[in-house]
Design a protein that fits this description.
This protein has 222 residues and is an alpha/beta fold. The protein contains eight helices and eleven strands. The protein has two domains: 118 residues, Response regulator (Rossmann fold); 95 residues, Winged helix-like DNA-binding domain superfamily/Winged helix DNA-binding domain (Arc Repressor Mutant, subunit A), CATH 1.10.10.10. This is Two-component system response regulator TctD.
Amino acid sequence: MRLLIVEDNRELASWLGKALRQAQYAVDIAYDGEDAEHMLKVAGYAVVILDLSLPKMDGLTLLKRLRQSGNKVPVIILTANASLDGRVAGLDSGADDYLAKPFEIAELEARIRAVVRRGHDRAAPEIAVGDLLFDGGTRQFFLGGETLALTPREHAVLEHLVMKVGTTVTKTALSESVFGFDDLADTSAIEIYVHRVRKKLEGSAVQIATLRGLGYLLRHAQ
């Protein structure tokens, strides 16, 4: 799952990026509103974590322009302005959630999981496909009741597919969800990780089907 952090405080942005990468997210960072707007035009993100006090283009302006363009990516505002007026302005501009600084990383991760579930119209935190279970609360996978051991890249591949279960995911979309701008990878690298995940699902009631020319589909094995 790929996130965009938009924060001009480089120390905070670095800390956030490191913490979220350790939580198995792919993370890109923009330090001003203009760079963030460009990144949002060329890449797809699961969630945007947005500071309001930004150089070149402030966070509210960026958010309004994002929504006016039709981009519905979930946005969590991070700001030191915890006033009622500030929260209302952010939510009215199209934010999905609001978290005041300082904050605990565990709470931010919980809010990320919550807006992702809402974005996929999934009220329940668990998704089951055959004997594969994804716990959205912990972001852990279980296969046949046992914890499924996955590397961070494998986890990112399977998480994206399970969130899109029943629909075809293109190789490009899957690659963009797994790799950030700083990762040296192309779409062909995704084939390696899909192959590795398939190996770990062998013998189970779930499979990753390849639809030639279309992409991948996670489904209950027939």
